[in-house]
Amino acid sequence: MNDTMVATRDQLNRRMLLLASGAGILLDSTLDLDQPETIAIVSVVLHLAWASQPFFLAAIAHRLSPRGLEWGYAAVALGTTICWSLLSFFMGGSSGQYFWAMMSAPLVFGVIAPGNLVATVTASVFTVLSNLLVMFFETPASRASDRVNWVVAASMMGCVAVLGTLTTRRLRESQAEAERFRAKALEDLATSEQRRLQAEKLVLVGKVAAGVAHEINNPLAFIRSNLDHVTELHRCPSRDELLPLLNDCQLGIDRIAQIVTSLNSFARRDLNDLEPCDLANLVAEAARLSAPSVHGAARLQIDVAADLPRVQANPLRLVQVLIGLLNNASEAIGEGGQGRGNIAIEGRMAGQTVVLTVSDDGPGVAPHHRDLIFDPFFTTKTAGRGPGMGLSIAREYLQLMDGSIVLDERQGEGACFRITLQVSPPAVNAEPQAA
Predict the structure, then answer these.
(1) CB burial of residue 360 (10 Å; 0-12, 13-18, 19+)
(2) Quick count: other Cβ atoms within 10 Å of Cβ 257?
(3) Entry pTM
């Protein structure tokens, strides 16, 4: 519940209590209608004056500052004790019904203004003082022992009300402090989560960069070989000899530029935004970035139709998921000791969603591990080969895209992971009309 809703609820509760108090006061005035006419009129006038105070405060409470509202309740407490003591004086003095009931005034304000120490103390002090005046001026005068008993009883009631108010204030301060601590903890958690995601991104970029460095060595090798061949010639090469060498060098440079561009694009994407994505392009990018680790262990086959509708996803996170699955598949095939294997990526429509499968013909997932592979820190790799967070993070990323990832049951060897993604809204997938 946000602060605005809490403030609105408190304001409504405050207004309802004030209105209920005013209505109770007016209802109480009907009890004196059987008194002599003069006394009944005095009672009605005093009750009207008394009831008008909470009604008025209820009407203006939303315009007052917290400090102003606190003093508003104190003013109502003062008015209440004055009206109540006058009713005590005219309606039987210290032997009347209003006199002893007035001891409850501090408790009443402890209820309608919880935590308001000014109002509670005002009600407590003026309850004692005003009814002492009643006892002094009533006829016949009350006994001194009755006055002492009244002061002791009313003071004890006031102390109870003040202690209750102080306890309420401490509870509210503790609650406010707990809310501040909770908000700070949530803020720190959100910051920590952002840092964790960024760290994961950098770790993945580092792993990809290590593979890319190996991939760049291939074009660099034949560029250097061609240049060495030219420098070893003891004569100026002819155009026919030089042109093929330069073309090969250009192809190598273009390959290096393509690799660097893919890595740079991958590293700069935002982690949070969802956007319409061309699934075939993202699969191709993941294949390029994971090529150094995959090509040594398996043949990669991609069957993702170019005419599939765009999916709603975060491109960086989806590429990260695919790279992780491809790396896992190639490592599983390598650890299986079966030689060069096969990895397949297939994409197809399934109702209103797009399903992408990544499968391999490696040793597969043991039956007793199937329910554990998406748990954080679970891994079947040897020590030092990874913390076991890859599939857990993949599931988290896909859930943020309103998608999912599951391990399909397969007969025989190999593993197959099925990714489900939401199709982008039709308006986003629609091609722009020619003017």
Answers:
(1) buried
(2) 11
(3) 0.46
